[in-house]
């Protein structure tokens, strides 16, 4: 994983960890349901952001190599399901 992408993913995961701790406390202390739901949406949003970061890394590192053929090779060799272009 690229350093910048990894750093961004780790930062989001740390934020999710902290949010989950707060979410757990609120649930145990029977805080207002609306606050708990809001916290849940925030965690989901941040987790979606981590997925986006990981997908971006995959596209930049792995998918690009699979699509780009090596010199003298057809793109079909690595990806037989790709259409002719």
Automatic annotation (TrEMBL):
Region (Disordered): 65-85
Highest taxon in the source lineage: Bacteria
Any one biological process term the GO annotation gives: negative regulation of DNA-templated transcription
InterPro entries: Metal_Tscrpt_repr, Metal_Tscrpt_repr_sf
GO molecular function, a single term: DNA binding
Protein name as catalogued: Uncharacterized protein
Source organism: Candidatus Doudnabacteria bacterium RIFCSPHIGHO2_02_FULL_46_11
């Amino acid at each position: 994983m690229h350093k910048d992408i990894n750093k961004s993913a780790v930062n989001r995961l740390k934020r999710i960890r902290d949010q989950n701790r707060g979410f757990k406390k609120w649930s145990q202390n029977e805080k207002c349901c609306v606050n708990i739901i809001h916290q849940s949406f925030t965690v989901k949003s941040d987790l979606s952001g981590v997925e986006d970061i990981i997908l971006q890394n995959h596209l930049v590192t792995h998918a690009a190599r699979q699509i780009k053929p090596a010199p003298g090779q057809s793109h079909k060799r690595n990806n037989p399901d790709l259409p002719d272009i």
